[in-house]
């Protein structure tokens, strides 16, 4: 596998079969809503088939960003999760009803708790992936993992005191009008 990511040409040689993908460690992260697609849930368990929003979040991790898709099923039994999502991105206010506006959600930011789930792959092996466990409301204080480009908040150090420099103004005699014949310095 190459040491860097790049676009492949149509006739490039490929060798990597592992699909090496390391999920983000469990924790609290900030995210940006990257994309929302309207879809339909096929139902299952106690849920009938119904509308579903496939929300792709760009989760900002310590090493790099990771896209996680969360399926938000539009069903009354999951209204709490829809409210969590809209509270997180600041489109819903506590205690107030909200008419869901999915178009306005794209590009918004929020905080969430990311978990790691294990699953059985088609080849019988065990796989891991990330999932959104919880969306935090816009006014909840959450210490999120900081991307590598950013550093954690540090108290700014006091600037070193510098003595102000004063420059003595230079005095210039005003020039007299040329018509009077007066010259500065002469009597």
Write a compact overview of the structure shown.
This protein is mainly beta and 187 residues long.
Give an overview of the whole structure.
The model is unreliable at 151-165 (pLDDT under 50). The chain is extended and about 105 Å long. With 187 residues, it is mainly β. Strand 4 (109-120) and strand 5 (126-136) form a beta hairpin. It is built from two helices and five strands; from the N terminus they run E-E-E-H-H-E-E.
Widest beta sheet: strand line-up: 3-2-1-4-5
Give a quick account of the main beta sheet: strands, pairing sense, barrel closure: 5 strands, antiparallel
Intertermini distance? 93 Å
Oligomer: single chain
Mean pLDDT level: 83
Instruction: Please indicate the percent range of residues in DSSP E strands (runs of 2 or more).
Output: 25-35%
| Helix run count | 2
Features:
187 residues, mainly beta, five-stranded antiparallel β-sheet, 2 helices
Task: Summarize the SSE layout with pairings.
Elements: E1 27-41, E2 50-60, E3 65-73, H1 79-88, H2 102-105, E4 109-120, E5 126-136
Antiparallel strand pairs: 1-2, 1-4, 2-3, 4-5
């Amino acid at each position: 596998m190459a040491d860097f990511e790049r676009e492949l040409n149509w006739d490039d040689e490929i060798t990597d079969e592992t699909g090496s993908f390391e999920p983000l460690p469990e924790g609290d992260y900030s995210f940006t809503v990257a994309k929302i697609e309207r879809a339909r849930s096929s139902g299952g368990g106690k849920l009938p088939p119904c509308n579903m929003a496939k929300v792709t979040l760009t989760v900002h991790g310590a090493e790099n960003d990771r896209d996680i898709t969360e399926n938000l099923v539009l069903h009354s039994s999951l209204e709490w999760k829809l409210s969590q999502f809209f509270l997180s991105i600041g489109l819903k206010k506590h205690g107030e009803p909200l008419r869901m506006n999915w178009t306005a959600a794209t590009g918004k930011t929020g905080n969430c708790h990311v978990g790691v789930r294990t699953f059985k792959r088609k080849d019988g092996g065990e796989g891991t992936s990330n999932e959104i466990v919880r969306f935090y409301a816009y006014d909840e204080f959450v210490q999120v993992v900081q991307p590598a480009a950013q550093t954690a908040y540090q108290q700014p150090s006091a600037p070193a005191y510098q003595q102000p420099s004063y420059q003595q103004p230079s005095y210039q005699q005003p020039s007299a009008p040329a018509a009077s014949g007066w010259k500065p310095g002469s009597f």
